[in-house]
């Protein structure tokens, strides 16, 4: 398929995991890419990989929690490519702690909101402003299953992801007649550094790994490429009558 030939597509969190797989999938379908991440070294690496695939691509170092970084990102995209057709807001953090709400360190609680919720808001705001200028577009926010059901021990993550779903649904209604579609995806356990090496350390805990697999009806974790396929479909014309969804990507967990 070549659904994104000549399309300008932005991916935040492109240096790792789901964002990385999404960037590569867009490139394979001919997109011009703007990649953003706080991790400059890894971001430059994926930029090089995509250059070698023959695509036009730029990497911009960007902390989505900083409004001025996000504005610079979108300005750079427009100066380089002239428009913005698709945007995938994938950058996010899952936190370091498992703790009850009343014991969760306040500073870390706020930081998670700043990145996952306010960061996604800054991105959406700048992307929508640009898409209104260029006549439309499609946006996918990467929320989480924790944006649909509780995640005990990680209240800031669940709260931020419920917020991303709320932002998605509200913005979808606000811009539905402006040719801008806005959807969210809500993955369960996807095999990326966040889940293998992050808060849940599944790479080092075989019991927790089995539990994470068993949460899905398919009894396995999802792969980042399987999530990227859903994201690209939501960005493509093939989903032209779909907006405002918070779509589980869950191996049957919520069936
Ligand atoms: N892996 C899972 O099981 C899972 C499940 C549900 C939702 N998600 C969501 O998917 C998204 C991607 O996660 P992943 O699993 O690929 O994780 P990951 O850690 O592999 O990748 C996340 C990327 O986001 C970047 N990032 C973090 N904070 C940033 C910031 N402030 N500004 C810019 N970039 C920043 C990181 O540097 C990293 O490259 C996240 O929003 C996460 O919450 C993941």
TrEMBL record:
| Name recorded for this polypeptide | SDR family oxidoreductase
CDD domains in the record, alphabetically? Answer: SDR_c
A Pfam family per the record: adh_short_C2
Highest taxon of the lineage? Bacteria
Keywords associated with the record? Oxidoreductase
The cross-references to InterPro entries, in alphabetical order and at most eight, read: NAD(P)-bd_dom_sf (IPR036291), Sc_DH/Rdtase_CS (IPR020904), SDR_fam (IPR002347)
Q: List all membrane-crossing ranges.
A: none
Give one GO molecular function term. oxidoreductase activity
Instruction: Please give the family membership noted in the entry.
Output: Belongs to the short-chain dehydrogenases/reductases (SDR) family.
């Amino acid at each position: 398929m070549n659904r994104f030939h000549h399309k300008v597509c932005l991916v935040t969190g492109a240096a790792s995991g789901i964002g990385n797989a999404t960037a590569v999938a867009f490139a394979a379908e001919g997109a011009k890419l703007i990649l953003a991440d706080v991790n400059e070294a890894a971001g430059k690496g994926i930029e090089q990989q995509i250059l070698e695939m023959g695509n036009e691509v730029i990497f911009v170092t960007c902390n989505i929690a900083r409004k001025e970084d996000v504005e610079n990102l979108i300005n750079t995209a427009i100066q380089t490519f002239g428009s913005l057709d698709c945007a995938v807001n994938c950058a996010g953090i899952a936190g370091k702690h498992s703790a009850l709400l009343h014991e969760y360190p306040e500073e870390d609680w706020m930081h998670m909101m700043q990145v996952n919720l306010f960061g996604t808001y800054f991105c959406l705001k700048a992307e929508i402003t640009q898409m209104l200028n260029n006549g439309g577009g499609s946006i996918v926010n990467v929320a989480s299953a924790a944006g649909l059901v509780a995640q005990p021990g990680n209240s800031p993550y669940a709260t931020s992801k419920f917020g991303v779903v709320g932002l998605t649904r509200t913005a979808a209604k606000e811009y539905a007649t402006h040719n801008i579609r806005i959807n969210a995806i809500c993955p369960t356990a996807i095999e990326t550094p966040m889940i293998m090496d992050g808060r849940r350390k599944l790479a080092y805990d075989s019991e927790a790994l089995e539990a994470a697999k068993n949460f899905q009806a398919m009894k396995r974790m999802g792969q980042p490429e399987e999530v990227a396929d859903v994201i690209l479909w939501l960005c493509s014309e093939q989903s032209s009558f779909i907006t405002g969804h918070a779509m589980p990507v869950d191996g049957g967990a919520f069936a």
